Amino acid sequence: MVKLQRVNRPKTQRGKRALKEREPKLIENPRSLLCIRGNKTNNTMKILLRNLHLLKSPHSIMYQRKNLDIYPFDNTSKLEWYCQKSDCSLFAYVIHSKKRPNNLVLARLHNYLVLDMFEFELNQQTFRSFDDFKCVKFAAGNKPCLIFHGELFDNEADYKRLKCFFTDFFRGETHMKEIDLNGIEHVITFTIDSQTKVLSIRVYRIELKKSGHRVPRIELNEIGPHIDLTVRRTKLASDDFYKKTLKQPAAIKQKKVKNVSTDELGTKMGRIHMEKQDFNQLQTRKMKGLKRHATKDNNEQSSEKRKKIDSN
What we know:
The chain has helices spanning 13-21, 43-56, 77-86, 152-155, 157-170, 239-245, 292-311, and strands spanning 33-37, 60-66, 90-95, 103-110, 113-122, 145-149, 186-192, 198-209, 217-222, 227-235, 260-262, 268-270. The chain has 312 residues and is an alpha+beta fold. It is 25% helix and 26% strand. Strands 1, 2, 3, 4, 5, 6, 7, 8, 9 and 10 form a 10-stranded mixed β-sheet that branches.
């Protein structure tokens, strides 16, 4: 006999609401981050993990206990189970060992399966945390402005996927129709050196100053964290799996309107199809000069004048 898997149904209203919140939706919730640390971690990696947790809050969950025997590039089943348990589609895992010191692993999931995973080495000498910058921070939950510098983000396939990953990591809410420019309080910049391939991540606070004009003067003040990373290993999804994640439900797709197009500036252009017009029946302004018999009379008068001239 085949043993059927038992389905545990919720017994309380709170459990029903929790399961309903996890059901597939046309517009998904913001991606949540799960912060996990391994068995051996130093104080620097703990501070880095806490800073990532603060950057993603309130859409972030942090586990405080150590987790044994987790090797993301060998087996991701345990991390996928943790993400499914906490309803998170992103995870950050830190560990420090002799073989891989100051190791940071970032990944995103699709349907609780690892899609893309990147392993970085943190430069401990240049790292500075939130607490090292004594200044005003930003409000939790605000959408940041993302800026990418470097040719590798546009030329190499791995770094193109890395750019897509960080955009997905920090984008937050996706179904917002309007954005108040005064609500954009911070900027996150990603700069990569084409020679050393060091990824520099900086966070700045936007301050609007008086300029004497309608447009204010913008100043950027660094608020931390100050992170320099080097890519160690990558594990990218296959082309088929990646295309599957890009599919959109039919209810979200905009229906194509015939003979209507939009140019690069956002101007809507329309094409109108009309029947062939008969210009002889076109209604015009009634003028003597436009009458047909007027041309005949003028021709008759000119011919009579010619005859008189010839007779003389």
